[in-house]
Amino acid sequence: MSRRGRVALTQFAIVLGLILIWELGVWAGLIDPFFFPAPSTLVARIGEWMSTADFWTDIGITLLETVLSFLAGIWIGTALGIWLGLSPFAAEVVQPFIKMFNAIPRILLGPIFVIWFGLGLTSKVALGVTLVLFVAFFNTFQGVREVNPVVLANARLLRASKSSLLRHVYLPSATTWILSSLRVSVGMAVMGAVVAEYLGSSAGLGHLIAQAEGVLDATGVFAGIIVLSAFVVVLDAIVDCAEKRLLVWRPAPAHES
Amino acid sequence: MGRPGLAVDLRDVMIRFGDFTAVKSMNLQVAETEFVAVVGPTGCGKSTILNTVTGLLKPAAGDVRIFGKSLTGLNGQSGYMLQQEGLLPWKTAQDNVGLGLVFQGSSIAKAREQARPWLAKVGLRGFEERYPHQLSGGQRKRVAMAQTLIMEPKIVLMDEPFSALDVHTRRLMHRILLDLWQADRRSLIFITHDLDEAITLADRVVVMSAGPASGMVADVRIGLPRPRDVSALQTTDEFVALYREIWSLLGAEVEKSYVTQG
Ligand SMILES: Nc1ncnc2c1ncn2[C@@H]1O[C@H](COP(=O)(O)OP(=O)(O)OP(=O)(O)O)[C@@H](O)[C@H]1O
Ligand SMILES: [Mg+2]
After folding, report:
1. Residue B178 in contact with residue B230, Cβ under 8 Å?
2. Is A249 on the interface with B (CB under 8 A)?
3. What is the value of pTM for the model shown?
4. For residue A153, which residues of chain B lie inside 8 Å, CB to CB?
5. ipTM attached to this prediction
6. Best residue in B81, B88, B107 to probe A by mutation, most A CBs within 10 Å?
7. H-state helical runs in B76-130
8. Average pLDDT, chain B
9. Nearest C-alpha to atom 8 of ligand 1 is from which residue?
């Protein structure tokens, strides 16, 4: 069997073993199901949820918030990164402010956004954007700064205008950096959406978990966390595909090929 | 006044970097369809001279004339192939070749259409969709060469374009370059530290003295008949005689450069 297959098999065995121990522990009365509900109960709960329309609305809303904050965050972060990357003066002026903003624990902004933008979509997207933005910004900035000087000189000698340089040299160079941080960005977007929902909202996965927690329903909390993990895994796979497709020009890392 | 028919005319050009005089007095005339090789010890200012012709550097004294006109700003007539790798890693071979056309406002599809015959000319048919990392060093040099030549510059500048290649690949590149130049003659200034290469390719070999404060010490006409057979040429008596003659000048300068630069 290939190494990959063996890895997958081992992982599967570990998960299966843990679930089995857990399930049996609950059955034998060794684990208190009030704190650690049995896996079979969790599966039943998720199945129950999946048959309701509300659950799919929750997922849809969280997905929408995630996508919106991801796109807006990437866009703003990239624009900012290019601007500051190309203008050393502006970069020097703005740098301390960016560091300051980035140092704020973003979770604390959640309540403020709720006050500013209400309980709806906007406050969730706003929190996600503040998280995604910095990842995109730092990577774009780095990408623009680290353009190979010979490549740049060559493009200039071929009489590239400023906008051509941006489009054909700076942006693609930054794209590699942005893409390599894409998974982090997606994680940030999900986190922003779910945390903001958790802090105050009327729908979404975060809301679902918060509700269960409100009535000390551990089964609901665990089930919600599992659904959330599955959600992130699916998004991750999509990002993986996008990354592979956009970076075909890059040599494969030596250990992979 | 510049002589008519001269594409490049450098008169008593002096180039300084702050207090450092890199080139004290350089004279270089290149006619419209002439292939001139410039040789000289390392650090004598060969790259500096090309940067001056392209307009990236302004001489501290002297005159730079391009087709009889004093050069101001960047030289719009020149194409410059750099010594180092300058291809965009995220563009395929054909898109790299067509890059200059796209910069001029041509559409990507049109640029590709024009780039493909150029790839064929440098012997890279079938490599259109390859990215630079999928090409060998010699293939990348050929893409870079096509990238410069597709713009059809009246003056082609090449800075040690093949020095990083092995002997066989270099011979291949010489043949390709000579074929292209023979088919469509332009003025070409070719920098090299390899005297064999200079004599094989050029109509004239210009020898520079050791830096700093360098200048031109010799300008030797290479009368070898064209078209030239790149691989058989080196063993002919004329070639050997020319080699001896130029080396007697260049060797002394190289000696000097060891003394001054350690
Ligand atoms: N930007 C610069 N600032 C200061 N000195 C420079 C600069 N560029 C070149 N020089 C100096 O000018 C001299 C000529 O440099 P140049 O690069 O033209 O040499 P070269 O003949 O091309 O050498 P090589 O064969 O090694 O490429 C060198 O002594 C170099 O140190
Ligand atoms: Mg040089």
Report:
1. yes
2. yes
3. 0.81
4. 82, 86
5. 0.85
6. B88
7. 93-97, 99-103, 108-121
8. 91
9. B48
